[in-house]
Amino acid sequence: MANSPLELPVLTLDDVKLQKRITSRLSCLVLGESHREHLKEVFVQEMARGLEGKPSEPSSLFMEDTFLPDLPNGKEEGDFLALDLGGTNLRVLLITLKAGQVTDEILEYYTVPECIRYGHGSALFDFLASSVESFLKKRNLNSNKYNMGFTFSFPIHHRSLRSGELIKWSKSFNCPGVVGQDVVALLEEALARRKLDNIAVVAILNDTTGTMVRGAYLDHQCAMGLVLGTGSNCCYVEKPENFKKQSNGNDTTKLKVLNVEWGAFGDNGVLNFMRTQWDISVDRKSLLAGSFTFEKYFGGKCLGDLVRECLVTLAEEGLFCTGPSETLRTVGSLHTSQVSTLDGEGLIGRVKETEEILQALGLCYTEKDVKIAQYVAGLFSYRGVVLISVLTATLLQKMERPHVVIAIDGSLYEFHPRFRPLMIKLIGDMAPDHTFELRLSRDGSGKGAALVAAIASRCASE
Questions:
Q1: Start and end of every Hexokinase N-terminal domain (predicted)?
Q2: Would you call 207 a catalytic residue per the annotation?
């Protein structure tokens, strides 16, 4: 295999015939120049439709106005709460700002049980309110008044900064009674049932917006936010004149920060040209089949299963191990963190942890099987970086700014050995006239929500 994360993975086996059969079988995972150009064209078309008020054809990109009134300017002051829901862990955060700088923060995690994630929406929002109540009571803070930012990392249609209707569930949530409803109103009703009238929900956002705001707090040239974790999404600063959708009459924002919702890119079939049998299989077995097409090509929730499904196919066709084990056939048995390990060991020529992963999957393997597993992990990972980089470079070209800091949060970007270096190379190659910097922006969904609450409070007072 190649020893650089910047190069397309290479399979080198003593058995040249087997090597050719495998590389030929997996050639559909290699996105050449024509695929990349077609992807860019489709993305530009879908964005244009998403920005139109009444497009001739609906877009799979929501291009939602976040109604963010401003970015941090150093004048934010006070104590602000954040409620962060987007995965199996709910987080409640309290930060103190002085002259725009965070001087103190308190964070607590609450596990969201499966019965809540799949149960009725009213139970979910009661759980959110009770968690906030528990957080404040534990610290004797329940008599203080707080403005709160609510990170709700699911596709929403914004009506204002503090109003958003759920478009559809994603990830591991599917609560009846919430789609089409204003989730801020549902949260406020749950807070009222707990008599928490000392909390005002002043902003709703998703983790991508929070990531960008957190990035802008660190560097004022930040104008894009990416999330590369369990799922994936992007937001960016758009020229107001390009946004043709009708806004409400109260929109007085100084800028247009748009939530692309690119996780759902391709839900209308425009990405089927690069879909493989393994993408189709993973989608069919997912909680929300037919949705979030783009992020299922590489997102942390699916990358492990993509590699696993491919290894099952190779094993069934006599190209890998002695055949697929029951464990290998089991959805979720190979985690995305293990894909990072497989690819990472392939890059540095190690095998120890790869062998441990194959053993845990109940496989009988040889030296060639170790190389094949690393090669498959590398191919899916490389493909994922290509997809993200094409879209990011296209946005940079669209924004036409002299320099853009891109704030990124998520385990794929932070921990996968291939993602960051390859993104820097590919984005630079694809947008050579636009300088940029990728900046890790940890906890955009938590601190970002509190910062948005602070910005909203400052703008209201101004």
A1: 33-217
A2: yes
Give the residue among 82, 376, 53 at the shortest CA–CA distance from 214.
82
Beta bridge partners of 224: 236, 406
Burial classification of residue 249, based on how many CB atoms lie within 10 Å of its CB (0-12 exposed, 13-18 middle, 19 or more buried): exposed
pLDDT tens profile 307-330: 999 999 999 999 999 999 999 999
Query: Are the C-beta atoms of residues 358 and 369 closer than 8 Å to each other?
Result: yes
What six digits make up the tokens of 333?
């048995």
| Residue that the structure tokens 């990728």 belong to | 438
Q: Which of 131, 153, 170, 457 is catalytic?
A: 153
Which residues are registered as beta bridge partners of 199?
Answer: 146
Evaluate if residue 189 carries a pLDDT over 60. Answer: yes
pLDDT at 350 over 50: yes
Q: What's the mean pLDDT in 24-49?
A: 97
Give the 3-state secondary structure percentages of the chain, helix then strand then coil, rounded to 5: 45, 20, 35
Secondary structure of residue 382 in the 3-state scheme: helix
Tokens representing 272 are 């089927």
The C-alpha atoms of residue 94 and residue 351 are separated, in whole angstroms, by: 44
CA neighbor of 293 nearest in space, from 310, 270, 317: 270
For residues 210 and 259, give the distance between their C-alpha atoms in angstroms, rounded to a whole number.
11
* Catalytically annotated residue among 91, 117, 308, 418: 91
**Strand segments (E) across 358-398:** none
* 232-238, strands of its sheet edge to edge: 64-65, 256-259, 232-238, 222-228, 403-409, 435-440
pLDDT band at 2 (very low <50, low <70, confident <90, very high): low
pLDDT in tens, 88-99: 889 999 999 999
pLDDT, tens digit, 9 for 90 and up, residues 153-163:
888 999 999 99
- Map 59-111 to HEC letters: CCCCCEECCCCCCCCCCCCEEEEEEEECCCEEEEEEEEEECCEEEEEEEEEEE
How confident is residue 1, by pLDDT bands cut at 50, 70 and 90?
very low
Q: What is the pLDDT of residue 222?
A: 97
Q: Which among 318, 314, 315, 358 has a CA at the least distance from the CA of 334?
A: 358
| Catalytic residue selected from 84, 207, 283, 409 | 207
Q: State phi, psi for 162 to the nearest 5 degrees.
A: -115, 30
Q: Which of 400, 404, 435 is nearest to 242 (CA)?
A: 400
Pairing type for strands 156-160 and 256-259 reads: unpaired
Is 91 among the catalytic positions? yes
As separate numbers, helices (DSSP H) first and strands (DSSP E) second, the chain gives: 15, 13
Q: Report the C-alpha gap between 408 and 227 in whole angstroms.
A: 6
**Residue 70 identity:** D
Reply yes or no on whether 21 is catalytic.
no
